[in-house]
Each structure stands twice: as C-alpha cells, then as structure tokens.
Amino acid sequence: MPVKILSVDDEMDLELLLTQYFRRKIRKGEYEFVFAHNGLEALTMMLKHPDIEIILSDINMPEMDGLTLLAKVNEMRNPALKVIMVSAYGDMGNIRQAMNNGAFDFATKPIDLDDLSVTIEKAIEQIDYVHRMQKEHSQLESLKSDLAVASEIQQAILPRVFPPFADLTDKLDIAASMSPAKDVGGDFYDFFRIDEDRIGFVIADVSGKGIPAAIFMAVSRTLIRATGISGGKPSDCITYSNKLLSDDSVDCMFVTVFYGILDLKTGEIMYCNAGHNPPYILKSNGEVKALPMAEDPMVGAIEGVVFHEATAQLEQGDSLLMFTDGVTEAMNVNNEEFGEERLEDTLAGVTMSTCQQMIDTVKSDVAAFTQGAEQSDDITILALKRL
Predict the structure, then answer these.
(1) Residues near 288 by beta carbon (within 8 Å), at least 6 away in sequence
(2) CB of 284 within 8 A of CB of 315?
(3) Residue 189 belongs to what H/E stretch?
(4) Among the listed ranges 9-23, 115-129, 142-156, 293-307, which one has the minimum average pLDDT value?
C-alpha cells in the first residue's frame, strides 16, 4: 500500500511541485498525495481518507491555520499520524511552537525538496515502527485474553465442589487448592470414585511453567484419571502413564506425581510416589509424620521405568496432606525458603482441623512468611481426612 500524504497549503503551485518531484514514487505506488488548501479542507480530506499517515501543513493559512490543525490532529491520538510543518524561515516562533506541540519535523520555504524527501522517509520509518508496536500490542492483548480463558478452563477441569461425594460426608473430608504463579499453572490435583469403598486421589507438579506446562498438565491429569479410574494398582497406573508420556515427551518435560487409593473401610492407602514431595500424615493425637522419600523417578522423564508402590494407614481422625514444592520453596524478600520445618510446625497446629482449615492455614502462613514477595511457583495443596 502506498504511503498517503496530505499536503495542506493555500499556495496552488506547491501541488504541482510535489507531484512533479515525487512522480517516480507516485508511479511506483510508493506515495499517494491528496491536497487541501486550509485546515478545514484538511479535516474534510482526513474524513474521506482515514488512511492518511503524513500531513505536510503550512502554518499561515486562511480559515484554519496550521497550528490549529495540529491541535485537532493531536486530539485524534494517532501515534502513526505524523505532521510536518511548513513555514517561512523567518517564522521560527511559530515553528518552535509547532514542534513543542507535537509536530514530527518542519521544513522552511522556499522548500528544499531533497531535504523534504529525507524528512518524509524519516517519518515513514517512525510510522512503520509505530505500526509494528501496535501489531505486537494487539498480539499481546490477544495472548492475554487467551491466557485468561486458558486459566478459566484449567481451573474448571479441576474438582472444585467440596464435599465432592454426598454419600461420604460422614466418612471422608476432602479439600484442595491450586494457586498458579502465572496466568496458567503446571500443578494439578484430582480425586475420583473408583468403587463403593475406594477413592483415588492425585497431586502432581509439571516441570516448567506457563502454557507448555499447562498443556502437559492437562494431558497428564486426563491420562492418570482415565487409567486410575479403572481400579488398577497405583504402580500400574503410573507405569502405564509414564510409558505414554515419555514416548511423546516434548522438550524433556516431566511431572512429579503422588497417586494413592484410599480404602474407606480399612483406612489403608496404597500409593505410588513418582518423584514428588512426601505427603504428611496428621495423626489425631497431634503427631505429624512424613511418608518416606520417593524412590521412583518423575513421570515422563525416563522410558521403560517400572514404578513401585507402598502403603500407609489412616486411622479414624487422621489426615493426609499433600502439597507441591511451591509451598516449601516459597521465598521471602530475603530469599529464604519456607521449608519443611516451618510446614511441619504449621501442620502440628491443625491436626484437629477440617481439611479446608488445614489448607487455609498453610496458605496463610506461607503468605505471612513471604511478606509480599512475588510468587515464584504454583502452590497446590490436597488434603483428605478419614472421619
């Protein structure tokens, strides 16, 4: 598309002068000139040609002078519209006023067309830059909108109704929370009914952050749920999930996973810990005990791994609290981590609380510790209690 230039001058000779001097660029389709003879005509031409990008305006004109026209152009707030003022050499007072009021550049009469050509080229460079910035801004706004939708979708696929099982309110208490560090996160939690007596539950942390982690999170969550809901052993579920994820892993992404099955009748938990932070058992007598460290690697990192499982026991009144490393690795303004010790101190005071109260207390203590420092990682907590 040609650069459209509006020349505003009450001297008719200028129209012929410009079209003659820039005839090659006009023929090549690089420039297109339109003309007006005062500020009012110029405003009318701008309505007819909204794609005008450069205005060459005389200062001294009848009906509406160039300075008034410049003020009207400024009201349009179009950074891609450049005004070059033209006046007699002795009119430096008005020229300075025009420059102070936002004119891009100026030329003096009699016009040096070679110099004017350079000025126009310089204006075009600035206009191109503005257009690029506007395009990038538009793309960023679009991305921001997409991220907001993605965040809503991500939150929607996680269970958010508590208590989740209406017929188990006298047997089981469950609550969970996921607070992403960015618009979308890589952590997730889930729980589902396997049969009348068994509940499957999982908490996981995908490597990396942002959109790639969120996509990997959605895939991992769907895969583990679809595999786990069939009721197989946790080790088999994670082994199968690892096979599929490692086969199609992009950029060496992986996910740490703690997946367990709770027997509601016996309180036994059969679980597989694939590189995840060990959860804590909160005993009804006030004792806080961490499960053993994970011996198996992360899911999706290594092909052909056979995962293992272990068991734990929840007595009536006991709770299991699971978390991602965004809790223990939360940093304050002095770059100190919240750490396991502070978490254990917090948990020791909530052993008799409901699951939601436990989660709220942990999040509150982490927030108080970080003292407003920027959240560097997703913070996800899942708690269940045998009633």
Answers:
(1) 280, 281, 282, 344, 347, 348, 351
(2) yes
(3) strand 187-195
(4) 142-156
Q: Measure the CA–CA gap between 234 and 309, rounded to whole angstroms.
A: 7
Report the candidate in 270, 278, 282 with the shortest Cα–Cα distance to residue 385: 282
Place of tokens 């056979």: 306
Burial class of residue 228 (count of CB atoms within 10 Å of its CB; 0-12, 13-18, 19+): buried
Residue 76, both tokens: 């349009």
pLDDT tens for each residue of 96-125: 999 999 999 999 988 999 999 999 999 999
Q: What kind of architecture, by CATH, is found in domain 158-386?
A: 4-Layer Sandwich (3.60)
Sequence-distant (6+) residues with CB within 8 A of 44 are: 36
- CA dist 29 and 244 (Å) reads 57
CA 104 to CA 7: how far, in whole Å? 15
Task: Give alpha helix (H) positions in 65-179.
Answer: 66-75, 92-100, 113-157
Q: Provide the whole-model pTM.
A: 0.70
**Superfamily name with CATH number, domain 3-135:** Response regulator (3.40.50.2300)
- Residue ranges per structural domain of the chain: 3-135, 158-386
